[in-house]
């Protein structure tokens, strides 16, 4: 088994087929999983994960071994975890999932998942780490009631460690239209560090016109996150309207059934 693993690592140090690469991006400090499925292998095949850093290493190593099946091949990085399911009788495939915790810039590069079987296909992933974005109160759906008069939406972006952030690249959009200083809203820039900035959108005198999709966009779409604002009253009105329509439809059906019964 040891001889097989050594031969595998030597074999894959060649050129990666660019037509078989999946390009994946992950936020700084986030968790990302790479799913590898390989078919037409014997049940006892060995699945190995290796990594080629984008930045060259000091010792000049091109490929760094990570895992062989569920066995860790390096002790340098405990953030890399493999969930190895092995051979699945139903799908007739081997499944291995590599998870990377707390992504950082040094994780950028090409990850390869390959078996020790001759001429088997490899799964290649080109990973890029992008800046971290957080929206507060939260990215998702925010429900407002008719008594609420104002709301603050903050968008914080943290650039990669070696990059200095340009706060002017952070922009807020409402229903796909860029927000500037308007009658009932204004923007506030706050700075924390050289590589982090926050843009706060303060909306006062709220009305139903302020409902909809709010989008924070950094660096012309490098990273985008949304928050949806809906009014509780609007939700209730929609629910009442739907209930009324359903009741009318039900009464109409009952009336038709009575007419049919009388005619018969």
Structure description:
With 264 residues, the chain is of the alpha+beta class. It has two domains: 2-130, Immunoglobulins (Immunoglobulin-like, Sandwich); 132-233, Immunoglobulin-like, CATH 2.60.40. It has two helices and 18 strands. It has helices at 2-11, 232-263, and strands at 21-27, 32-39, 47-53, 64-68, 71-72, 80-88, 93-100, 109-115, 123-130, 132-136, 141-144, 150-158, 170-174, 177-178, 185-193, 196-204, 212-218, 223-231. The chain has a six-stranded mixed β-sheet, with helices on one face. It is flat, with a radius of gyration of 27 Å. Mean pLDDT is 81; it is low at 1-15 and 234-239. Keywords: Membrane, Signal, Transmembrane, Transmembrane helix. The chain crosses the membrane at residues 246-263. Residues 29-128, 131-243 form the Ig-like domain. One of its GO terms (cellular component) is neuron projection membrane.
State the strand order across the main sheet. 1-9-8-3-4-5
**The top level CATH class name of the largest domain:** Mainly Beta
How far apart, in Å, are the first and last alpha carbons?
A: 82 Å
Q: Biggest β-sheet, characterized? A: 6 strands, mixed
- Give the number of helices: 2
CATH homologous superfamily label of the largest domain: Immunoglobulins
Residue fraction in strands: over 45%
What is the CATH architecture annotation of the largest domain? Sandwich
Unreliable runs: 1-15, 234-239
- Calculate the mean pLDDT score and round it: 81
**Residue share in helix:** 10-25%
CATH topology of the largest domain: Immunoglobulin-like
Shape: flat
Number of domains: 2
State the order of secondary-structure elements, H for helix, E for strand. HEEEEEEEEEEEEEEEEEEH
Give the beta-strand count: 18
Radius of gyration: 27 Å
Structural class computed from helices and strand pairing? alpha+beta
């Amino acid at each position: 088994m040891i001889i097989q693993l050594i031969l595998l690592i030597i074999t894959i140090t060649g050129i990666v087929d660019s037509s078989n690469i999946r390009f994946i991006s992950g936020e700084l400090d986030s968790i990302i999983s790479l799913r590898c499925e390989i078919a037409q292998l014997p049940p006892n095949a060995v699945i190995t994960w290796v990594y080629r850093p984008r930045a060259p290493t000091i010792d000049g190593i091109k490929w760094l071994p990570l895992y062989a099946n569920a066995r860790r091949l390096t002790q340098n990085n405990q953030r890399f975890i493999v969930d190895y399911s092995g051979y699945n009788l139903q799908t007739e495939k081997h499944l291995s999932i590599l998870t990377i915790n707390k992504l950082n810039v040094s994780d950028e590069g090409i990850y390869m998942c390959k078996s020790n079987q001759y001429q088997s296909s490899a799964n290649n992933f080109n990973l890029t780490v992008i800046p971290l974005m957080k929206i507060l109160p939260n990215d998702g759906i925010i429900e407002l009631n008719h008594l609420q008069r104002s709301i603050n939406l903050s968008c914080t972006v943290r650039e990669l460690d070696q990059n200095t952030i340009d706060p002017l690249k952070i922009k807020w959009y409402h229903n796909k239209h860029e927000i500037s200083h308007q009658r009932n809203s204004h923007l506030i820039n706050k700075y924390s560090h050289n590589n982090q900035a926050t843009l706060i959108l303060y909306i006062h005198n709220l009305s139903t016109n302020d409902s909809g999709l709010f989008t924070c966009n950094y660096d012309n779409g490098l990273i985008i996150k949304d928050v949806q604002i809906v009014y509780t009253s609007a939700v209730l009105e929609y629910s009442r309207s739907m209930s009324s329509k359903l009741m009318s439809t039900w009464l109409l059906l009952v009336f038709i059934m009575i007419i049919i019964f009388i005619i018969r």
